[in-house]
Amino acid sequence: PGPDGTDATGHRRDGTPLPALDTGGFTAAGALRATPLDLLTFLEAHLGGGEPRDPSLAAALTEVVRPLLRRGWRHAHTHTLTWFHHPSPYGPVLFHAGATLGQQAFLGFRPGTGLAVAATATRRVHRKDTFVATAYELLTETP
What we know:
Layout: E1 10-11, E2 17-18, H1 36-47, H2 55-63, E3 69-71, E4 77-79, E5 84-86, E6 93-100, E7 103-110, E8 115-121, H3 131-141
Antiparallel strand pairs: 1-2, 3-4, 4-5, 5-6, 6-7, 7-8
C-alpha cells in the first residue's frame, strides 16, 4: 500500500470496501500503483507525444511493442513483451488489462491514429463484467 489516503478503495460485488492488496512476492511480476495522469502519460510516451523522447526511452518503448509470439487459430493472437497486439478496423491496437481484489484497469493504444484508452474501476471482477470488453471496444471501434 502507498501512503495513507493515496490508494483507491476497491469494492466487493455488493459494494463492501476492500483493504489495499498486499502483493508481497508478486510485485516484481508487474504490480504497480499509478494515478490517472501517470497512466495517460505512459500511453502518451508510447504514442510519441509530449516531450521529445530520450534515446534510451525510445529504444525501450520500441522493444516492448515488437511482436514476440503468435498463437491461437491461424496465429491471429500476437503478443509483445508487455502488450496484447490485435488488428482492428482502424489499424493495429496494443492493450493490456489487469485486476486485483476490487480493482480493474485497462490500457490500450492505436499507434497509427494516436488513440489511447485508459480505464480504471474500483469494483470486483466477475464473469459477466463488461468493463474490459467496453474499454476494448472503445479502442478498436472508435474511428
